[in-house]
Design brief:
The chain is mostly helical. It contains 4 helices and no strands. The radius of gyration is 16 Å and the shape is globular.
């Protein structure tokens, strides 16, 4: 809903409906991330092996930091230090490093994301 608000807004000419939805959803995302940040040192985030929460949450954080291009000032990774620690731990894993290489991503795809530059094809 944040990335493609036009798919969720009525097509009846309400000017600003998409911007209003995007603004609302960004607030919701930040609220939910703040809740996750508050418990990020708890039992779901402890341990050496990444959990499904880790490997799902890190790309979501990446997408918030990158998209839509030119409209990401609302998202500050610095507001989520515990989640960024989780991201850095994932980035140190060999599988993530291999994926970064094959997908044209820098070696910090979650904690300091940059637009990917895949060796072939397109990132979009």
């Amino acid at each position: 809903m944040t990335f493609y608000p036009e798919k969720y807004c009525p097509d009846d000419g309400h000017p600003g409906a998409e911007a209003a939805l995007r603004h609302h959803m960004r607030g919701q995302i930040l609220r939910h991330l703040a809740q996750i940040e508050a418990v990020a040192t708890g039992p779901f985030f402890a341990g050496d092996a990444p959990t499904c929460i880790d490997v799902y949450l890190a790309p979501l954080l990446r997408w918030c930091a990158l998209y839509p291009r030119g409209d990401t000032a609302w998202f500050d990774t610095g507001a989520f230090p515990a989640l960024m620690q989780l991201c850095r731990a994932l980035e140190a894993r060999p599988a993530i490093r291999r994926a970064c290489t094959s997908e044209g991503m820098d070696q910090r795809p979650f904690s300091a994301p940059l637009t990917p530059r895949p060796p072939e094809g397109s990132a979009t």
